[in-house]
Specification:
single chain, alpha/beta, Rossmann fold, eight-stranded mixed β-sheet, four-stranded antiparallel β-sheet, 32% helix, 23% strand, globular
Length: 319
């Protein structure tokens, strides 16, 4: 029996690389480590191309890892056999970024939601129909929607269908991969509130991947910041927003607009200059050094992620 005090998900020095031709490889994840406690949300932030989505997909074994471990509920995901992995997928699901591309246009909403039920043989006949209607109700849709096709829905409604599909097999852990980025701003808050309500009702655990720092703060208990495949800072949400330590984190947070024009004019803005280092670069030092305003000679050596305050980790020689 797994100790309930242990994290539900542990990612330990996870590595992933992709071939870019000519015998060269792009190292997308470089020894990424984090954990998520049961019923909590870890927000994973960083600019486009830093490897956030690859973390989520590799954690669920949609991509095979090239190094490190992913431990879900005490089981090594990447070492599980086919039967074990099928059972693991009941506990781990994903809400994809694009609600227009992630739903099969030739299937009805009911059949889309029921795919997981059929794979895991969870409900049959009338019970299957009742479960589909229950899931639609949970995400704010009507039972009549089960017979319709995805093209008949708005983007926000399609994302709700994606959420219902993820919930169908009663998972414990859900990767929300940019789940709101393709939606209108007016709809984003509704989807975030739905996810938070479902978490409270069902005890769900989230890895919430996003570049919207305001939304991440609203939903997350802890936040991890990535830059070019590396984890540069991790902390509790309020701690990270109030006392960011890594220069990249400071730059990200200074870019968040505020509704107070006086405060916006007075506060310090951190502008990041310089060239972005290639993820395929053979440089062994800090990936952020080419843009860092406080870089020094020490930065030719890669900084390790270390705890500088209680539960506050940062990868920077200068902190």
């Amino acid at each position: 029996m797994v100790n309930s005090n242990q994290p539900l998900l542990e990612v330990i020095e996870l590595e992933k690389q992709f071939s870019i031709g000519g015998g060269k490889f792009n190292k997308v994840l470089d020894k990424i480590s984090f954990s998520i406690d049961r019923g909590k949300t870890l927000g994973l932030v960083g600019e486009s191309g830093c490897g956030k989505t690859t973390v989520g997909r590799t954690a669920l074994r949609l991509y095979n890892a090239d190094g490190g471990k992913v431990i879900f509920d005490g089981i090594d995901v990447h070492k599980s056999n086919r039967k074990q992995y099928k059972q693991l997928t009941k506990g781990m699901q994903m809400i994809f970024q694009d609600p227009y591309a992630s739903l099969n246009p030739r299937m009805t909403v009911g059949d889309i939601i029921a795919e997981g039920l059929e794979i895991h043989k969870l409900h049959r006949g009338k019970a299957r129909t009742e479960r589909i209607h229950e899931l639609l109700g949970m995400v704010g849709l009507n039972r009549e929607h089960a017979s319709r096709f995805p093209h008949e829905f708005s983007g926000g409604q399609r994302q709700r269908i994606g959420i219902a599909r993820a919930l169908a097999v009663e998972p414990e852990f859900i990767v929300c991969d940019e789940a709101i980025s393709a939606l209108d701003v007016s709809i984003q808050a509704q989807v975030i509130n739905l996810l938070m309500d479902l978490q409270e009702q069902l005890g769900l655990t989230y890895l919430f991947i996003s570049h919207d720092l305001s939304m991440v703060r609203h939903i997350s208990d802890h936040i991890a910041v990535m830059y070019l495949g590396n984890m540069v800072e991790k902390a509790e949400t309020d701690e990270l927003y109030n006392e960011p330590l890594h220069p990249y984190t400071k730059g990200l947070l200074s870019a968040i607009p505020t509704p107070d024009p006086i405060f916006e004019k007075q506060r310090e803005h951190v502008l990041l200059s310089g060239d972005i280092m290639s993820a395929a670069s053979k440089e062994t030092g800090c990936k952020f050094s080419s843009r860092c305003p406080i870089a020094s000679e020490q930065c030719v050596v890669k900084p390790e992620l270390r705890e500088v305050r209680p539960a506050h980790f940062v990868a920077c020689h200068m902190v």
